[in-house]
Amino acid sequence: MRSETSEINSEIQRLLKQFRLPDIRDRYDDEVKVAVENNIGHREFLYKILKVEEQGKMDRLRIRNIKNAHFDSQKTIEEFDFNFPTNINKTEVIDLLTLSFMDKKENIVFIGPPGLGKSHLSTSIGMKACEKGKSVLFVNAIDLMDELYDAISLGALKQKFIKLAKIDLLIIDDMNYLKMDKEKESIFFQLIRQRYEKSSLIITTNLPFNKWDEIFTSELAATAVLDRLLHHSHVISITGDSHRVNRHFKEA
């Protein structure tokens, strides 16, 4: 009888490996023991071990998504000091962490002076999206535009756009140091148009919208981009003194 049980257990392990169920495979013996000790029925036992596998897959997906997002650093909303900025709508920021804006294909723009946590907040939302199984890409605006511009000479711009279209949440950081020519302007407009009402975008910037013509070649071009970007958008304005500067003076 013991030999037969051992053979069955070996077959179960083989099948779990074959069907790529690593979490059930790792936890199977422990879960069987718990089921026997607590007189758990077959249906409940099946449910419990399937939940073990589901949680394991979600954990691995989260880790993979965070790695692929290329965050500068991993920041959470719990680490953000809402008492530091002079003005910020905390309620709206917390609501954005539900990711309902992604379901509605809406955008977010964090706008305000340097050093107030715009990148931190966008990363926090991106991290939450990764936890929910969404694909995220965090990229500096200049780096993104240089990469897309270089793709033209390589004949790879279309492929780049196809790849970006598959990203559930694109975060473009520091949309204020750019100075575009006509060609880069056209590329950026294509990117915004591609995601318009299809997938979500987060942008951080120091520049108020009435100065976006400093980024683009004209006020007309800036208006064309802003028209699509802001149509379905949450604009979070943050004011105050730079946290980094204040910390420097305190340490001096």
TrEMBL record:
Residues 104-237 form the AAA+ ATPase domain. Keywords: ATP-binding, Nucleotide-binding. InterPro entries: AAA+_ATPase, DNAC/IstB-like, IstB, IstB_ATP-bd. It comes from the Bacteria. NCBIfam families: IS21_help_AAA. Belongs to the IS21/IS1162 putative ATP-binding protein family. This is IS21-like element helper ATPase IstB. It comes from Clostridium frigoris.
